[in-house]
Each structure stands twice: as structure tokens, then as C-alpha cells.
Design a protein that fits this description.
By secondary structure, the protein is an alpha/beta fold. Helices cover about 30% and strands about 25% of the residues. The chain has 11 helices and 14 strands. It has an 8-stranded parallel beta sheet. It has a 4-stranded antiparallel beta sheet with strand order 1-2-3-4. Helix 6 links the parallel strand 6 and strand 7. The longest helix has 18 residues. The chain is globular and about 60 Å long.
């Protein structure tokens, strides 16, 4: 156990790479249309070369066929001297590649004494307003949660069932002035979304994320879009973009989907060139997961990097959240 903040159940060593499972309790049960969780299960990579250690974190996601064991096994099979370019070829987009890719960026920043954004040719980042997520629950409980967080400027609402209208009405009552975005997590049918869309507009919802299952989203091409539709589960890396044409207005870039900051930056550039509006989101992880995403999210229209806010305990040091939003990471955390 590396710290009393979590329990470690498995550690693997590959030369100078330390790969460890960590668990962080959530402040409250987090529920989406696919299930509920009470802990964030993450995999942390510590890569040490020349006496310098870089760190990265990922969140394996069962929706994409990932487990803690599968991610650890993928990482443990890699040579410790692998570079970022060769990593893109050795591992597919996903959580395992994300953890090591971000560790390599962190290691390079520490080795050169140069912040990551300068290495990537980006301007210095600033604080970003981030969404705060209300998980799926009864209308009464969601209204109470919305009221507790009504002063936050942006609320993200987890939906994804035939009973969602009552939930959305309740959230709007609880937070009448907040901007609301909705994430259905693939939980609606085309007919249900067509029925709900005018009500989303009526209630001032600014954007809807992944209303239909990723492998059943063709109907979106023939539907009017009275509010922006954002691809999440349908968009992983640059190879996803051709299939999104005519169906989505925005894409949600997550490091655990792209397989790290390297591909995420390339996806962002290509998506912007095509004309997609950008959202940068996260899985439920610690500040170490969010830190590279804060760099990536500069200039994004929607930022959803609230993972540490959902935890009962975060890493120390962690990211700073205040009235300005989430601040860029201190060098002692990452990058």
C-alpha cells in the first residue's frame, strides 16, 4: 500500500516501470444507465529513467472490454525503454496506452525542465469552467442534488431511460439558472430521443451527449438536431471521425478513449479542421487523470473534468478547483 488513501491489490514491475492498481472511494454512489459504482478503480504507471520518474493514470472501462487485469497485462508486456511514437503502434487506443503515454509526457517534461504545454507547442493554459455531474437517480433525489449545486455554472445530467422527462424537469426546478448538458450514455432509442428533443430545448439544455447506442446511431443522420449532439462512445480516435459525418455536431475527447495525450492532440486538430465543436471529458479518476486533460481542454466549448470532485479523497497534491474552475496542474502533480 503506497498511501492510506487507497488499497493496492496488484503491482507489476517491468524493468523500470511500476504499474499499480489503486482504488479511491467516491463521495456518493455514481450511477449511469449502465450501472453504479462506489469506487474509482484506476491504474497508475510510474516510469523511471535516468533517475527521473514520470506518472500517468488511466481508468479501465468495461464498456470497451477493458478490465484492471487486462490493462495491467498490456502494460507489463511492454519494454521499459519504449517511446511515445512506438507506443502508438504497440498498443491500441484505450486506457493502457493512455496511462503510459501520459507518463512519457510527464517524464519528458521533468527531464527537460519544460512544462508539457511548451513541449507540445501549446500556449500556457489557464483555468477552465468545468461541468459538475449529477448521476442518475429518482427525480426527487436529482432535484435535491441540483439544488445543492445550483450555483455551479454548468451541470451535466446523467439520463438514459424512458422515465427521463421527470428527472430533467426536476433538475431544472432544482437549478433554474444553471446551464445544463445531458448525457444519455447510449440509453435512448431513436423514437424516444425524437420525442424528448423538443423538451430538452424547452428546458434550456445546451447539448445532448450520445443519445443512441454507438452501433445504432445511423438514425441521427436523418433526424433534425434542434440542439447540438455530441459523440462520446461513438468517437475514440481519429479513425472514428469518418463514421460521425452528418450525425454529430460535437465530439467528446477523453484520454482513456484516445489512448493518451499524443493521439488526443491529433484528434483535436483534425476534428477542428473538419468543423466539429469540441468537448473534453473524463472517466471518474483522480487529479492525475485530469491533469493532461486540462492542457488538452484549453479552448474547448464544453469541459467536463470533474472526476476529483466526485471522490471522497483525491491525490495529494491534486488539481485546484475554485470559482474560476479547474486550474492547470502544478508541476509536482504532472507535466
Amino acid at each position: 500500500m503506497r498511501s492510506p488513501r487507497f488499497e493496492s491489490s496488484r503491482i507489476a514491475h517491468s524493468a523500470m516501470m511500476n504499474i499499480q492498481e489503486e482504488r479511491y472511494p467516491l463521495a456518493e454512489t455514481f450511477t449511469i444507465s449502465r450501472g453504479a459504482k462506489t469506487e474509482a478503480h484506476v491504474v497508475t504507471v510510474e516510469l523511471t529513467r535516468d533517475g527521473i520518474t514520470g506518472r500517468g493514470e488511466c481508468v479501465p472501462y468495461a464498456r470497451y472490454g477493458e478490465t484492471l487485469d487486462s490493462v495491467i497485462d498490456q502494460l507489463a508486456a511492454l519494454p521499459a525503454d519504449i517511446g511515445r511514437d512506438s507506443l502508438q503502434q504497440r498498443l491500441p487506443a484505450g486506457a493502457a496506452r493512455n496511462a503510459l503515454d501520459c507518463a512519457l509526457w510527464d517524464w519528458e517534461a521533468r527531464r527537460t525542465g519544460t512544462r508539457v504545454w511548451r513541449l507540445a507547442g501549446l500556449p500556457e493554459p489557464g483555468p477552465l469552467v468545468t461541468a459538475y455531474t449529477l448521476s442518475l437517480d429518482t427525480p426527487e433525489r436529482m432535484q435535491a442534488a441540483a439544488a445543492r449545486h445550483a450555483t455551479r455554472p454548468l451541470l451535466k445530467i446523467k439520463l438514459g431511460s424512458a422515465d427521463d422527462m421527470a428527472r430533467l424537469e426536476a433538475v431544472r426546478r432544482g437549478a433554474p439558472d444553471a446551464t445544463i448538458i445531458v448525457d444519455a450514455n447510449e440509453g435512448w432509442t431513436a423514437d424516444l430521443y425524437a420525442e424528448l428533443a423538443p423538451h430538452l430545448v424547452r428546458l434550456g439544455v445546451a447539448m445532448v451527449e450520445q443519445p443512441l447506442p454507438a452501433d445504432e446511431d445511423e438514425p441521427l443522420a436523418d433526424m433534425s438536431r434542434p440542439l447540438p449532439v455530441c459523440a462520446d462512445e461513438s468517437c475514440h480516435d481519429r479513425s472514428s471521425l469518418p463514421a460521425l459525418a452528418g450525425k454529430y455536431d460535437m465530439i467528446n475527447i477523453k484520454l482513456d478513449k484516445t489512448g493518451g495525450l499524443t493521439e488526443a492532440l491529433a484528434l483535436r486538430a483534425q476534428a477542428q479542421a473538419i468543423g466539429y465543436r469540441l468537448m473534453v471529458g473524463c472517466m471518474v479518476g483522480t487529479s492525475l487523470s485530469m491533469a493532461p486533460a486540462v492542457v488538452l481542454a484549453q479552448g474547448a466549448e464544453v469541459v467536463d473534468l470533474d472526476g476529483p470532485l466526485l471522490l471522497a479523497r483525491d491525490r495529494t497534491p491534486g488539481l485546484r478547483y475554485d470559482a474560476e474552475g479547474v486550474h492547470p496542474p502544478d508541476a509536482s502533480l504532472w507535466g
